[in-house]
């Protein structure tokens, strides 16, 4: 082996070492940035909704820091991801407690940016999927949400004048306006901004903000025609 070849190999080794060091630094920097972003996101969710998603065991110290800062009860920390399969005991009987946590997680993880007020039929639709499809009932769902309330995981379950249950998955202060609107919805399941403003003595802005939240969470749908204008339809509250 000539001197030139030895020098070339030495340079290649040095270059590879340098590249490896750069990659390690890049990974470290990326990990740090991700952790910072995740911490900020968790803090934002905790502040806004009073819940912590703690699926990453490596973030134990960060989770505890956020929990103390925002006074989050330990019951409102999601530590395990519940699957549809784990809800069925030996593939047959429904584990109501796990069904309860499955419904809670789906609301938290899928709707954490738009609100957490759902009717019981809405909760049922969220968990009556996949391997659980047609294997759980509305009665199972009601038992599940009542477990969440009993264990202080969720703040409130309220029976509306229509007889349908409305479940607040986030602290009530974030959903009281929406609950007030649901109490106004009549048996045809339709309401307008004007109806809300008149009944509750609210401004148009406040009424539309709460109504839009109900649309975002799919509790309500917007229907609009040239003749009748804009209305909000609540499928799960329609009784006739």
Provide a descriptive summary of the structure in words.
The chain is of the alpha+beta class and 240 residues long. 52% of the residues lie in helices and 13% in strands. The protein contains nine helices and ten strands. The strands form four sheets. It has a three-stranded antiparallel sheet with strand order 5-7-6, with helices on both faces. It has a three-stranded antiparallel sheet with strand order 8-10-9. Strands 1-2 form a two-stranded parallel sheet. Strand 9 (221-225) and strand 10 (229-233) form a beta hairpin. The model has no long low-confidence stretch (mean pLDDT 79).
| Silhouette | globular
Secondary-structure-based class equals: alpha+beta
Q: Could you tell me the number of beta strands? A: 10
- Strand order, main sheet: write it out: 5-7-6
The rounded Rg comes to 25 Å
The SSE string, one letter per element, is HEHEHEEHEHHEEHEHHEE
Helix content: 40-55%
Tally of alpha and pi helices? 9
Indicate the mean pLDDT: 79
Percentage of β-strand residues: 5-15%
For the termini, the CA-CA separation is 92 Å
Unreliable sequence segments = none
Biggest β-sheet description: 3 strands, antiparallel
Write the layout of secondary structure elements.
Blueprint: H1 3-49, E1 52-53, H2 60-69, E2 77-78, H3 84-87, E3 88-89, E4 93-94, H4 96-111, E5 117-119, H5 120-127, H6 138-150, E6 156-159, E7 165-168, H7 176-182, E8 190-191, H8 193-200, H9 204-216, E9 221-225, E10 229-233
Parallel strand pairs: 1-2
Antiparallel strand pairs: 3-4, 5-7, 6-7, 8-10, 9-10
Helix pairs in contact: 1-2, 4-5, 4-6, 5-6, 8-9
């Amino acid at each position: 082996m000539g001197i030139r070849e030895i020098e070339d190999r030495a340079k290649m080794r040095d270059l590879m070492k340098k590249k490896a060091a750069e990659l390690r630094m890049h990974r470290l920097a990326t990990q740090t940035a991700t952790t910072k972003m995740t911490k900020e996101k968790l803090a934002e969710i905790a502040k806004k909704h009073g819940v912590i998603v703690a699926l990453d065991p490596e973030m134990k110290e960060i989770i505890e820091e956020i929990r103390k800062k925002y006074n989050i009860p330990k019951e409102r920390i999601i530590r395990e991801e519940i699957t549809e399969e784990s809800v069925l005991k030996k593939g047959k009987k429904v584990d109501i407690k796990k069904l309860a946590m499955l419904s809670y997680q789906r609301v938290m993880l899928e709707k954490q940016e738009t609100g957490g007020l759902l009717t019981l039929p809405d909760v049922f639709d969220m968990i009556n999927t996949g391997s659980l499809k047609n294997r759980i009932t509305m009665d199972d769902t009601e038992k599940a949400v009542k477990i969440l309330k009993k264990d202080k995981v969720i703040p409130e379950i309220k029976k509306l004048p229509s007889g349908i249950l409305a479940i607040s998955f986030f602290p009530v202060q974030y959903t009281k306006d929406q609950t007030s609107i649901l109490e106004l919805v009549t048996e045809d399941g339709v309401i307008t901004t004007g109806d809300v403003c008149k009944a509750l003595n609210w401004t148009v802005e406040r009424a539309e903000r709460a109504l839009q939240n109900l649309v975002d969470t799919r509790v309500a749908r917007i229907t609009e025609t040239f003749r009748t204008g804009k209305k909000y339809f609540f499928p799960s509250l329609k009784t006739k």
